[in-house]
Amino acid sequence: MAEEVQMTAEGFQRLQDTLDRERQRRDDAVAQIAAARDDAVDLEDRNLETAQIDLPSMEARILELEDVLARAVIVEGTPDQDGRVALGSRVVLRDDEHDRELEVRLVSAVEVDALAEGAAQVSEDSPVGQALMGRRVGESFEVTQGERQLRYTVKSVG
């Protein structure tokens, strides 16, 4: 059996919306190919060639999204019973080096969206995400990024 993919409800919906858009793009490309074939006098029609090149990558992306969504298990965005950070948790971290706070949301790797609004998303697979998982309010941790050592303290978990 295929491995489950845990994700938040928001991440699932975002991936579902992406799948719908990709299917529409594919359908538009297929229609463009059909129209170009009907109208093509010149067999080297650039629109036809471009659409044919794009179609396999669209199909691959659709299959990938369908696979992830089929294996998805929605998790609640709340800390576990002990108040520990879990997938979907919103966490306020204090960056000890720069004396500032930042809000992050711990998400699965497949649902990270760099353009998402709100709290910054941190993948559970990233060094910060791995170090953050299971932490409680007041706990500190260090993460190596390149040549630097970053130190964070968990201020709140929600």
From TrEMBL:
It holds the Pfam family GreA_GreB_N. This is GreA/GreB family elongation factor. The lineage of its organism: Bacteria, Thermotogati, Deinococcota, Deinococci, Deinococcales. Residues 12-46 form a coiled coil. Keywords: Coiled coil, Elongation factor, Protein biosynthesis, Transcription, Transcription regulation. It comes from Deinococcus rhizophilus. Residues 5-74 form the Transcription elongation factor GreA/GreB N-terminal domain. One of its GO terms (molecular function) is translation elongation factor activity. Residues 81-157 form the Transcription elongation factor GreA/GreB C-terminal domain. Transmembrane segments: none annotated. It comes from the Bacteria.
